[in-house]
Amino acid sequence: MLPLIQREVVDRKGWIDEEEFLNMIALAQAAPGLIAVNSAIFIGWRVGGWKGVCGAVLGAVLPSFLIILAIAMVFSDWKELPAVEAAFKGIRPAVVALIAAPLVKLAKSAMKSTEYRVQNTDRSALFLLVSLAAALLIWLGHVNPVWVILATIIITLIVCFISSSSCRSAK
Amino acid sequence: MLYLQLFLSFCKIGLFGFGGGLAILSLIEMEVEQYGWMSSQEFIDIVAVSQVTPGPIGINCATYVGYTVGGIWGSMLATFAIVLPSLIIMLSICKAYFWLGKRFKGNLYFEQSLRMLRFTVIGLIAAAALMLIKPTTFIDPVSWIIFGVVAFFTILPNFYKKKVTEIISHPILLIILAGLVGLVVYLP
Is B154 in Cβ contact with A101 (below 8 Å)? Predict the structure, then answer.
């Protein structure tokens, strides 16, 4: 999605420059919500204020919304067909794999962005214990993920306030 | 009452959806599960359609879940609700950014929180995937074979980066192939 936005907004229309685009990615990823929508809000605001935001967000959301709505309306009639049911029996485990498998890449990049060294050896893999704890709390403990997310933010902030050196080491 | 629930749920998802499409997907699943809006099969089918349709997967999924739960109004409400927190937060950030100009720099503590959140989100997505593994979705050994093959081809480009592996690992292609396997194996 982001390369598409870059080509349209930076290269073709020249609404924002390269450096601002990179800042935009950082902000859009840091803020909660969909990255595509956050990007649209940033660019819309930059180009045309409130009206720009309305236009950009509608543009980002409306095509998806209409396509899905059309599919959802049709699909509810098709679902009972034996062929569709058979195909989806094969698709379901594939979808679970498509949710689980990107975890490898996510874990790699999360570890890369965190520098934690003990006696010159990289120990950032230890942070995967946070992932494990979160997964167990949500999966087996049935804790609402919102609490886990809030707890992560609060604990990190407390640790940072107590020892600011542990925060400075980050890249 | 249902509409209010739908609205609040998707606001919550928009507000706490850190870390991209899969994280948002996981949060939607948790809400669906909690309120019993639909079965796991139905939710997975929606994710499959959202994957093969163009556009941000979070929007696709929100629209579809909204439609299933509350018809056309439900789909409009869910889509609006998932965008609303972004609008408020991102606009505030934009104002601060353009007001401060080049002096704008992320707060160190805030950056560190985001870095830790990435690990939490990994756990969240893992939990979502684990919750979807049920007797109703993994019906026989063939399901596990499909799961293994798709997972293998999705992970492969991380270790063996070639044009071929990138093409094979494309989610739309993998879903279509899995659908064909389903047709061959399960069609009576």
Answer: yes
